Amino acid sequence: MACDTHAIGTWTYTDQAGVRHNGMNTQVQVRDLLTGALIAGLTDSNGRFDICFTASQFTQLYITFKAENAQWRVQNGSDVYNWSTPVRANPVAGSTVNFATQFPGDGVRGNRAAHVFDIGNDAWVGVPHTNGCWDPKDTTCRQLRFEWSNAGADGVDFYDQAANVVHLFPRTPDAPMEVMHEVGHALMDDVYNDAFPSTVGCPSPHFPAQASTTVCAWIEGWADFFSLAMNHTSEYRFLNGTSTDFEPPSWGSSSVAEGDVTEQRVAGALWDVIDPQIAGSEIWDQHSEGFGAVFFTLAHHVNTTLAGFWSARGTDGFDVSDAALGSLYQNTIDYGYRRPLVDGRGQFLPTFTSPAPPQNFSLDTAVQSWSVVALRPSSPTDFDLALYDNRAQTIRLGSSTLNDQAVEFIAIDSNLRPPGDYYPRVSQFKGPGTYTIESVMGFSTLQPGSSTTIHLDDSQVAAVQDTPLTAGVPVTITLTPQDPISVAGLFVMGDDPGNPSTFVQSRTAAVASAVGANSGGQPVSVTFTPSRTGEYGVVVTFDNVGGDYTLTRS
Questions:
Q1: Of 137, 118, 9, 126, residue with least CA distance to 61
Q2: pLDDT tens digit string along 321-349?
Q3: Counting runs of H as helices and runs of E as strands, what totals does the chain give?
Q4: Are 142 and 299 in contact (CB under 8 A)?
Q5: Residue 475 and residue 482: Cα distance in Å, rounded?
Q6: 405-435 per-position pLDDT tens digit
Q7: How far apart are CA 377 and CA 407, in angstroms?
Q8: CA 497 to CA 413: how far, in whole Å?
Q9: Cβ contact 322:339 at 8 Å
């Protein structure tokens, strides 16, 4: 028999702050008190329901709202939380029975149970699923179960791996992020097919800012991250009313232990992988992607550490390049991050409290000319610069280790050494503080009897040009600053075609140099006679500010 009558209404609950919410995906049962007839459906995204039934089968009509659907439920032992309306007798066929706005009639208890159910719904909406299950690999779905009672004393919430049940204490529903944290554990266990990583040796209770082990940090860090991601915030809010913003802490944050042995660092790293970037908001984290990519790798591999997850992520075809590694490095997790240097664009970077780890970079020399990587420290810091031929930084090509405030640089002659990739490393000798680093390629040539104007902003450190010289023919090169406060250095780099070790040189190897350290704004000049014929590199360093400079060869 076709249905001829409709029951409509809205299901709601009130949270701990007194805010009314519409309950989504709650089971709605149209029931008859006498016959036991039952027709069920779910509330929609606005908490509304519209269920069609046959009036003749429901003479004692009422509605039951049940905290259960196929994907999750809230229970107290064997009882699933449910709430029923008063009876409506003898509905008229063809009519619409409006139950209006309904809510739990048992006060705090009911509202908390309904709130837990709604947190389950938030997780369901946030997790990608194409098969109707939490685990995209399942053919038979596992229902997420919450065990909660409003009675008894509060304790430490936990996920029971054996029973596959999230256990919550009386007040925990008032802290939705704490509930979602436990959902994160349940989800990991589900997609890992019960191969949950061993928690032996993991501290209980655990404190996000304290170091433990890579396994413990992965387990708890994932759950923290999941709660952040589902709530679309970097600020984790605890039941006791306190909160912690996982976004700001980075290198040098003494209150948070560093590395992938720390839960907060793991959670912060995963958050930085997915969070939208605001220009200039963070130094190393410049990456953003959706939660779905992170979840895909979690769901298709059983990993016990962040390092294992990151390796599997690469296998899945997701970004594990320096662009993504910067999100981890922002959170003091260094899996071989090499910050890219872009030609002609200086980068202003901080260092950390001592002892500071080295900071590593990458660059490409794309043209056959002299290139330079240069570093200018802030006062009163001092940094050393090294250059490596390979990403692992085991093949060292050169270094610059001058004292105090001098600009460090290493020049590369790609006229003789084929263009390619290089890996600079900056080590803190005295600090902490800041520095500006830049890589520059020489795209122009300073010809005999010519001059050129160089303009640089304050973020830039150096400029380089090729100049062809002939053995035995004297040459004079002059640098004239246009700004009276400018302090600049002039260096001429030359190498030996028969000795490849000279193709990469620090400033101390210059065949001629002049530094205007005590005569700001005054020209600096070098005159010398080259011993070999070839392409030489003219390097200009800017020791304090940018501006306009004239470079002349005579």
A1: 9
A2: 999 999 999 999 999 999 999 999 999 98
A3: 7, 34
A4: no
A5: 23
A6: 789 999 999 999 999 999 999 998 887 788 9
A7: 7
A8: 10
A9: yes
Q: What's the CA gap between 111 and 497, in Å, rounded?
A: 81
CA dihedral over 525, 385, 248, 338, signed as positive or negative: positive
Residue 224 and residue 230 in contact, taking contact as beta carbons nearer than 8 Å: no
Residue 486: name the closest of 438, 549, 423, 424 by CA.
549
From CA 500, how far away is CA 492, in angstroms rounded? 18
Please give the C-alpha separations between residue 171 and each of 121, 122, 179, 408, in angstroms, as whole numbers: 19, 19, 10, 59
Q: Report DSSP letters for 382-419, one per residue.
A: EEEEEEESSTT--SEEEEE---TTPPEEEEEETTTSPP
Distance CA 530, CA 151 (A): 90
* Unique residue bearing structure tokens 């600020």: 235
Which DSSP category does 378 fall into?
P
Is the pLDDT score of 1 beyond 60? Answer: no
Does the global pTM surpass 0.85?
yes
The contacts of residue 241 (CB under 8 Å, 6+ apart) are none
> 3-class secondary structure for 6-49?
EEEEEEEEECCCCCEEECCCCEEEEEECCCCCEEEEECCCCCEE
